[in-house]
Amino acid sequence: MLHEIYEYTKDLTFADTRSPEYRLQGVILDISTFRLFQAVRSDKSEKKTNRPFIKNIIHHSGEWDIIVHDEFLISTVELPQGRYSTKKKAKTDIQKIITDIVDAREYQKPVGQDGMGEEITGSKLKLFDVMNALNYFKHKDTVRMVLKENGIKEEALFNRILMSFRHYIRNNIRGLPPDLHVLLSDLTIHQKGSVDGLVPYFLNHALEIFPHLEFMDDLKNTSDLSKPANWYMAARELNRKIIFHAGPTNSGKTYHALQRFKEAERALYCGPLRMLAQEVYKRTNEEGIECDLLTGEERLFVDPDENPANHLSCTVETASVYAHYDVAVIDEIQMIRDSQRGSAWTRVLLGLCANEIHVCGEASAIPIVRNITETTGDEFEIKEYGRLTKLEMSEKPVESFTNIQPGDCIVTFSKKDIYAVCQELEKIGKDAAVIYGGLPPATKRAQAEIFNDPDHSCKILVATDAIGMGLNLNIKRIVFYSVKKIDIAHQEDGSCLRRMANISTSQALQIAGRAGRFGTEYEDGEYTTFHADDYHKLKEILSKQVEPLLLAGLKPSADQVETFSYFMGNSSMKQVLEVFYNITTVDDTNYFLCEMSNFKALSSVIEDVEMTLRMKYFFCSAPVSIKDGAFISSIFLMYSRRCSKGIPTTFDFVCQRTGHPYKYPESLDEQMVLEQTYDALDLYLWLSYRFVDMFPDRLEVKLLRDELEPVILHGIRNLTKLFTSTDKTDKTDKKKSRK
Ligand SMILES: Nc1ncnc2c1ncn2[C@@H]1O[C@H](COP(=O)(O)OP(=O)(O)OP(=O)(O)O)[C@@H](O)[C@H]1O
Ligand SMILES: [Mg+2]
User: Fold this and answer.
1) N or C terminus: fewer CB in 10 A for the chain?
2) Which of 329, 518, 546 to mutate to test the pocket of ligand 1 (most atoms within 8 A of CB)?
3) Which residues form the Helicase C-terminal domain (predicted)?
4) Where are the alpha helices (H) located in 243-365, listed in sequence order?
């Protein structure tokens, strides 16, 4: 297997982030540890360096992650799904896994027995002899046999318990319980009895320090995720019909599903993004059909008394699996394979109580949806669509910003590139609208409207792949500024996982498909690359077939984690999840376990906050990403601390902590903080629906958020100025530090 990984990793290219002008070529020197790489600089100096790149290689859900030292970026290798599953090993070794992960509890010595044993027997124990007896105990076959029968099978586990047992006896030689004192004095002073008599004491000690040993079967049963279809009994009682609307981008999949949504008496739309849920909400109401909106942060009712309308547009995560609908739409179903959010699509696919479920997405997701419907017994039908408008690759790459034309959307995969592109465009007097993931939905919408407005002078869009799903924009041509995507994830151990990989065929198709949308100004779309050397790479990426999706994401529910944690004794959320993930049983012909890396990172932030595990689970499910910055992490911690102590977080407190009144940003850093402030206000709203008393000022905070949106938009419209002022400050700082 090592050789296979070697084959996939040997040609990776790395970038030294401290000096990005250099490219480094990595060569694995020692494939048994993967720790040593040789890097050759491909700049003019051609110097060699032997700095080790790799901290660790871990694998999960059938893929390998290569964790590098912080200063490097690295490509991720996508090995074929499911080939390197760890599950088999985990299943056979539950006890070892738990014991490796869980810390032993401190043994609580029974009180008030000091000296009683000596009084009864009239003799003092000699430490040396007692330790010898324990050595004999350690090596005696019958002892080991009885312990195995009692569940202590693992050598490592036995040794850890023995170490603690010895430690306890050594430190309490004068104060052991009388019966144990009698037994040890018989063994060591009177040379009678057998060390086998120590077994019950040893077992008691084991259960004290590893309480989970008593519940091995329960742990195994509660971590069993092998039949997720059975979690949703209400849905199983219905005769559901699943209609899969399959086709390329811009083929009218969502349009047709929404036709049924609108016709139905009671209907639900589940979208992948807040923006899309809002768009459906808006359009449905505009057509005279009353429709409510539900997202994690927002609940809008058409009825002023908040009686629910018959139509609801929501984000996938917020959809109810209890309410009954005639028709439900699940959009962008290919997201079911997403390593972080996939489980949300699996949940609605398995659990929605609707007679007719319209599933829209790439044809590549047909196999997994079909397979899942076989396990649920639902009826399954496919409707296929062709693209409504023409979409072609341009004959050549763009190469120069002067060749950028009205209707172009330049797609980058990093904010850094967004700034760089905007600056270049400004130099030649071209105004651009900007959209990236971290922006508030309203800001994204405002930017999209500016770009879509035929009367506005801004005719160019610079965006990250945040525009990749479902949006209808007036794009004539998509220009890929790069075909590699950098992804930075923070691991629970605090290390940084940096990945740089070619975008997948599916991603490239989704993005390219934004050009030439039906019903927009430019019906015939084009796509190309900016850089000449990416042109053929993109061609190659798009020439590949999208691999069929065979696995759907799965995640344990709060109930499952809570029950599981009960059997784990006083373990931390991190340990509970780690053990759960290692011993869980999943039907790996249809499912994989989602990563929950953000969840775990959030749980590390609030590890020391005292709250019930269920509360922690809820907090950690919050849609905030702490990789976005320290400010949002500290707010997250502050909200959770106050909530755990029962202190309400008020509007005034939020104003004070978020620096209200908000000022227009003067640098990129200030812009970033404003974006994180927006996330902090969003988080407040999200929490306010669950902990009403602890976050009581929802309406006021919502107004605060509305106030912040134009401030962020102002920053975005002046991005180049911010970039220039940040650049100047950096240079002045550098000059000062040189002096
Ligand atoms: N039959 C139709 N009549 C009128 N408008 C249509 C029709 N089909 C699609 N459209 C419009 O064309 C645009 C693209 O359709 P839609 O969003 O449904 O495509 P899609 O296949 O879901 O694309 P994506 O994969 O990007 O989500 C939308 O603005 C939609 O309203
Ligand atoms: Mg769609």
Assistant:
1) C
2) 518
3) 396-562
4) 253-263, 274-286, 342-351
